[in-house]
From TrEMBL, chain A:
Keywords: Auxin signaling pathway, Developmental protein, Nucleus, Ubl conjugation pathway. GO terms for molecular function: auxin binding. This is F-box domain-containing protein. InterPro entries: COI1_F-box, F-box-like_dom_sf, F-box_dom, Leu-rich_rpt_Cys-con_subtyp, LRR_dom_sf, Transp_inhibit.
TrEMBL record, chain B:
Aux/IAA proteins are short-lived transcriptional factors that function as repressors of early auxin response genes at low auxin concentrations. InterPro entries: AUX/IAA_dom, AUX_IAA, PB1-like. Its main location: nucleus. The keyword Transcription applies. It comes from Fraxinus pennsylvanica. GO terms for biological process: auxin-activated signaling pathway; regulation of DNA-templated transcription. It is found in: Nucleus. Belongs to the Aux/IAA family. Residues 306-410 form the PB1 domain. Residues 251-270 are annotated as: Disordered. This is Auxin-responsive protein. The lineage of its organism: Eukaryota, Viridiplantae, Streptophyta, Embryophyta, Tracheophyta. Homodimers and heterodimers.
Length: 581, 426
């Protein structure tokens, strides 16, 4: 072509592309577009920190401003991944410190972050703005002190659900007096008390503060003071709410809340005393997101609160809400999009609340925009699942956890194959599914046949044979993440669908029947996969090849076998030799 | 024929050598060498058919106990499911009905599944989906050759070219297909039963040393009205009795599994726990259990969920976390910690990389931990550090916030305080 756009113009056009998919497509058009695109890509998302190396990323995208990296597999949340497995962020930070001096954002999920890494971040990136550590671990409040003290332009510090070694609350006092740029602070996972006066001053001097999620240690009587200093807050998380009700505190709180005209999201509520809930009624009409999943409050009080929130889009709640409360929810909150119901007492043999499958059916019938569900319950039936599927074909995420493993349909004692089959058949846009209850291979046949947009599937205590796994791997075209535990899936389906694994981000199988021999074979055959055997009993070749491995984690990678494996992880290598870390 | 002789030679090789890591002299390599030459002599399809035929019957054991080394290709015309060596599995016929009692009445659904699937062969065929194998004859792919025989597959990596693999997979052998399919159904029962006898099936038994094949899953299953699809595929008489064993043991057993630790003798009313089930994050579990202690309304329930505390050790680079509720005595806790921190201690001693960790570790570690070198201490709710073991277990769990494995010298003076404290509390 004799005439083409000058590079600057193309670069300008590409800047409007925010989705990675679009950018990846653009970079495939021709070499010059590839070059232009890679120089102007500012955000990189790395879904698996071992799928690529920092060097490769930096080489291709030299001008990145924001990185998001995920580490451990999802089942690490449930203690299925042993400690010291990996996902260390330090190599990434040190590489980026050298090559991305203008880096502004680091978002990490399920990674091991040390104080050293935090200190390096705080000193290496002059314009650092956003630090989000989601479900991370390995650092202490000393690391937070470095961030507070050195990041002059920090906007967001979000520690959601990270496991921080809490040495003291002193870190907060390290924010300098002239530090005013804070927009979002989420310290809800921390235990220690921070200096309240330091917190008050921080809140006062940051006019752009929109999100403030406190930790448990901030008592209810101090909330009013904070709210009054930040009436522009959009998201607020309380501390512990457990002081005995006192009229002065209560009225103070009412006054403070009424000044917050922009509040949309509330969370916290640890140990909440129900009598304090009415203090928030004045903001309820604007509330779109409510996290009551730590509030051990009974159903009537919950209903009272929820009935005042007609614009509610997202509700996280404990099963104290019961079927009656869910019925109320379905009648008051017609905008509801996401519902998560957590179990208050998952380990007791008997149900402690009256929450059954009926609650979910009612919500599915009454809330036309419902698209995302996480539901823990103790009984389920095919009929209920079919009803839910028919009511809500627009479901995108459906995660059902019936607390008893392999519980059948409680009415008919049959497996729940038909019910879940209905879900995948009717909900054509379903992207995420978690199964539970008694399930045979048939449910996987349904999933393989219908769930064409399914991206993530979680399976536990289900299936009869390799056929189940084969259905899933051969049928689910969009599958990216598959995690399986305690299922009778073995070598055949895995090896027969080896090529499929290269199209996915990762596969996790624990307590299944995959033999060491098959893992070795898979590792040999598929050089673009890392086939990692996790076995705390010792080297796999000290047992017969037919012996099943404890845990298997397979992921595609361009970085080769990783060099930081602990002593209980083995990568199945191309040369067939057993390689220790 | 050269190939045949190589195969019959294989029959006599004992198991131990089978798994040896010697390379060029291994029987598999030898066979592949012959196979690749085979290809030169015959055109693709014929070669495979010949190869399969040659591999059939004479070499396979029909009487039930497989010698793993006997064959390299199992899918023969007459016998399915060749068992794996050393696991003592039975062979089952196509449909798995007559020879092995693998399908009992409660597994009617399985049989019907098999029947149905026999009719839908194409849709359900397993394929060897190797990279680059985009053959137009995909729908008549060769199903997986083996039925639980893993080392056969090592044939493939040694083939000289990918095309060799593809051609192998392209050609379908009808009987092979059917078998490959039912293999799956029956093969599972074998694998499962082999695993089951080892006490590992569906259990997160990281420590098979415990020897007790128990699981809450099994227990509960046995309790449920005979609906036991998983357990129904028994391939030997031993299975049903084991199932009964488990079911009678069920009510008394509760167990948590964490790094292969032992059973927890929780109250009979409380459910036994499986690691990571229900899938709730530690953060939430810990928060809820603390909340439920504080909240009067929730009192009286059988012990709340997990109680994770961090365990650190002087000189170790990492922390570990343990769930105190998975243990019921100090001994259990101590042995679990020993296992966890063994690696650190051994390295500290400067010992070389021990190939047999079990042999080296235990005795030495016990000496280390119980001797002058290390003691186990805990930080209680008041922030004081005390020696573990002075107070009753229940009291210890209530007050322990953190654990630390300290050097003996650092721990001097802790013991008396613990005693005083518990006296004061009484």
């Amino acid at each position: 072509m004799a005439y083409s756009f000058p590079e600057e113009v193309l670069e300008y056009v590409f800047a409007f592309l925010s989705s990675d998919k679009d950018r990846n497509a653009v970079s495939l058009v021709c070499k010059s577009w590839y070059e232009i695109e890679r120089w102007c890509r500012r955000r990189v998302f790395i879904g698996n920190c071992y799928a690529v190396s920092p060097q490769i990323v930096i080489r291709r995208f030299p001008e990145v401003r924001a990185v998001k990296i995920k580490g451990k597999p999802h089942f690490a949340d449930f203690n299925l991944v042993p400690e010291r497995w990996g996902a260390y962020v330090y190599p990434w930070i040190s590489a980026m410190a050298r090559s991305y001096p203008w880096l502004e954002e680091i978002k990490l999920k399920r990674m091991v972050v040390t104080d050293e890494s935090l200190e390096l971040i705080s000193k290496s990136f002059k314009n650092f703005k956003v630090l989000m550590l989601s479900s991370c671990e390995g650092f202490t409040t000393d690391g937070l002190s470095s961030i507070a003290a050195n990041c002059r332009n920090l906007r967001e510090l979000d520690l959601r659900e990270s496991d921080v070694e809490d040495l003291s609350g002193h870190w907060l006092s390290h924010f300098p007096d002239n530090f005013t740029s804070l927009v979002s602070l989420n310290m809800s996972c921390l235990g220690s008390e921070v200096s309240f006066s330091a917190l008050e001053r921080l809140v006062s001097r940051c006019p752009n503060l929109k999100t403030l999620r406190l930790n448990r240690a901030v008592p209810v009587e101090k909330l009013a003071s904070l709210l009054r200093r930040a009436p522009q807050l959009v998201e607020f998380g309380t501390g512990a709410y457990s002081t005995e009700i006192r009229t002065d505190i209560f009225s103070n709180l009412v006054g403070a809340f009424s000044g917050c005209k922009h509040l949309k999201s509330l969370s916290g509520f640890w140990d909440v005393v129900p009598a304090y809930l009415p203090a928030m009624y004045c903001v309820c009409s604007r509330i779109t997101s409510l996290n009551l999943s730590y509030a051990t409050v009974q159903s009537p009080d919950l209903v009272e609160l929820i009935s005042q929130c007609p614009n509610l889009k997202c509700l996280w709640v404990l099963d104290y809400i019961e079927d009656a409360g869910l019925k109320a929810l379905s009648s008051y909150c017609k905008d509801l999009q996401e519902l998560r119901v957590f179990p208050s007492d998952p380990y007791s043999a008997e149900p402690n609340v009256s929450l059954t499958e009926q609650g979910l059916v009612t919500v599915s019938a009454g809330c036309p925009k419902l698209q995302s569900v996480l539901y823990f319950c103790r009984q389920m039936s095919n009929a209920a699942l079919v009803a839910i599927a028919r009511n809500r074909p627009n479901l995108i995420r459906f995660r059902l956890c019936i607390i008893e493993p392999q519980a059948p349909d409680y009415l008919t004692l049959e497996p729940l194959d038909t019910g879940f089959g209905a879900i995948v058949e009717h909900c054509k846009e379903l992207r995420r599914l978690s199964l539970s209850g008694l399930l045979t291979d048939r449910v996987f046949e349904y999933i393989g046949t219908h769930a064409k947009k399914l991206e993530m599937l979680s399976i536990a205590f289900a299936g009869d044979s390799d056929l189940g796994l084969h259905y899933v791997l051969s049928g689910c075209e969009s599958l990216r993440k598959l995690e399986i535990r305690d299922c009778p899936f073995g070598d055949k389906a895995l090896l027969a669908n080896a090529a499929k694994l290269e199209t996915m981000r990762s596969l996790w199988m624990s307590s299944c029947s995959v033999s060491y021999g098959a893992c070795k074979l898979l590792g040999q055959k598929m050089p673009n996969l890392n086939v990692e055997v996790i076995d705390e009993r010792g080297p796999p070749d000290s047992r017969p090849k037919t012996c099943p491995v404890e845990k298997l984690y397979v992921y595609r990678t361009v970085a080769g076998p990783r060099a930081d494996k602990p002593d209980f992880v083995w990568t199945m290598d191309e040369d067939g030799a057993l390689r220790l870390s | 024929m050269g190939l045949f002789s190589c195969l019959t030679k294989n029959k006599q090789i004992p198991n131990s050598e089978r798994y040896s890591s010697s390379k060029s002299s291994s029987p598999i390599n030898l066979c592949c060498f012959y196979y690749s030459h085979f290809q030169d002599y015959f055109s693709g399809q014929q070669a495979i058919l010949h190869f399969i035929d040659l591999m059939s019957t004479p070499l396979l054991d029909v009487d039930g106990v497989g010698h793993g080394n006997a064959t390299l290709m199992s899918s023969s015309a007459s016998v399915d499911c060749v068992s794996q060596s050393g696991s003592g599995l039975k062979e089952c016929n196509f449909l798995g009905l007559s020879d092995c009692s693998s399908v009992d009445s409660s597994a009617v659904s399985n049989v019907s599944v098999e029947n149905k699937n026999n009719l839908n062969l194409k849709a359900t065929e397993l394929r060897l989906g190797l990279p680059g194998s985009r053959s137009p004859e995909r729908d008549s792919d060769f199903s997986l050759l083996t039925s639980g025989k893993l080392d056969e597959k090592q044939l493939f990596p040694l083939l000289p070219s990918k095309d060799g693999i593809c051609s192998l997979t392209q050609k379908s052998i009808v009987s092979g297909n059917k078998r490959g399919f039912s293999d799956t159904v029956d093969g599972f029962s074998e694998i499962k039963s082999s695993v089951f006898t080892e006490g590992k099936w569906m259990f997160n038994a990281t420590g098979s040393d415990s020897g007790t094949p128990q699981s809450v899953v099994e227990a509960k299953l046995a309790g449920n009205a005979g609906l036991n699809v998983i357990l129904s595929n028994n391939s030997s008489g031993a299975q049903p009795s084991m199932k009964k064993e488990v079911s009678t043991r069920a009510p008394k057993e509760g167990h948590n599994k964490m790094n292969g630790s032992n059973n927890n003798s929780s109250a009979p009313a409380a459910k036994a726990q499986v690691v990571g089930w229900p899938p709730i994050r530690s953060f939430r579990k810990n928060t809820l259990s603390t909340t439920s202690k504080n909240n009067d309304e929730v009192d009286g329930k059988p012990g709340p969920g997990a109680l994770f505390v961090k365990v650190s050790m002087d000189g170790a680079p990492y922390l570990r976390k343990v769930d105190l509720r998975t243990y019921s005595t100090y001994q259990e806790l101590s042995s679990a910690l020993e296992k966890m921190f063994m690696c650190f201690t051994i390295r500290k001693c400067g010992s070389q990389e021990a190939p047999d960790r079990e042999m080296l570790g235990e005795n030495k570690l016990k000496d280390l931990l119980n001797g002058a070198d290390y003691v186990l201490t805990f930080e209680d709710k008041d922030g004081d550090w005390m020696l573990v073991g002075d107070v009753p277990w229940e009291m210890f769990i209530e007050s322990c916030k953190r654990l630390k494995i300290m050097k003996g010298s650092d721990a001097i003076g802790l013991a008396p305080r613990a005693m005083e404290k518990s006296k004061n509390q009484k």
